[in-house]
TrEMBL record:
Regions crossing the membrane: none
Name of the protein this chain belongs to: Hemerythrin-like domain-containing protein
Family: Belongs to the hemerythrin family.
Keyword Lyase: no
Alphabetized UniProt keyword annotations: Iron, Metal-binding
InterPro entries: Hemerythrin-like, Hemerythrin-like_sf
Residue ranges constituting the Hemerythrin-like domain according to the UniProt record: 18-148
GO MF term set: metal ion binding
Alphabetized SUPFAM superfamilies for the sequence: Hemerythrin-like
Length: 163
């Protein structure tokens, strides 16, 4: 399938949990490329594949979608716990509020996209899901996760003085 290339993406923001989540997400995104081995043709039509292969592709897509959803929920929970550990200041409150709203917004978009996967060609669904998540993680990680890591990496006294 491989229509969406994995970006050159910097996963190391200085927090082992967040960084590990980003790496795990990249692995799931790469696995989405295995949903269709292109035997369905350039237009990704399942009607040219044997029924067993089509069922296999649907099953793989459903599995990867579930794994990605679980990882995203764990990632969001981890970040919420980290945000709760920050000193309460205008800077951290503003960041946390925006960050949490971004999680809710993306969760809604992801769930809507995932709900449509049963009714689509698996290769097309995988490509759309991959594109949605890549677009999100590129912006989210740079806007929110890098800032969260910077807030967490400040010395405790410095966090309180600057906040």
């Amino acid at each position: 399938m491989s229509q969406v290339a994995m970006p050159e993406f910097r996963y190391d923001f200085g927090n082992s949990g967040i960084d590990a989540d980003h790496s795990a997400l990249a692995m799931i995104l790469e696995a989405l490329e295995q949903v269709c081995d292109e035997s369905a043709g350039a237009d990704c039509r399942c009607d040219v594949c044997p029924e067993k292969k089509t069922r296999s592709c649907h099953g793989l897509l459903k599995d990867l979608c579930g794994r990605m959803q679980a990882l995203l929920l764990e990632h969001f929970q981890r970040e919420h716990e980290l945000m709760n550990s920050l000193p309460r200041s205008q800077t951290t409150k503003a960041h946390c509020e925006r960050h949490r709203r971004a999680h809710v917004s993306f969760s809604t978009r992801y769930n809507l996209a995932a709900a449509k996967l049963n009714d689509c060609q698996p290769a097309i669904g995988a490509r759309e899901l991959e594109s949605l998540v890549l677009d999100w993680i590129r912006g989210h990680a740079l806007e929110f996760d890098a800032e969260l890591s910077a807030l967490l990496n400040r010395p405790v006294g410095d966090r309180q003085r600057r906040a």
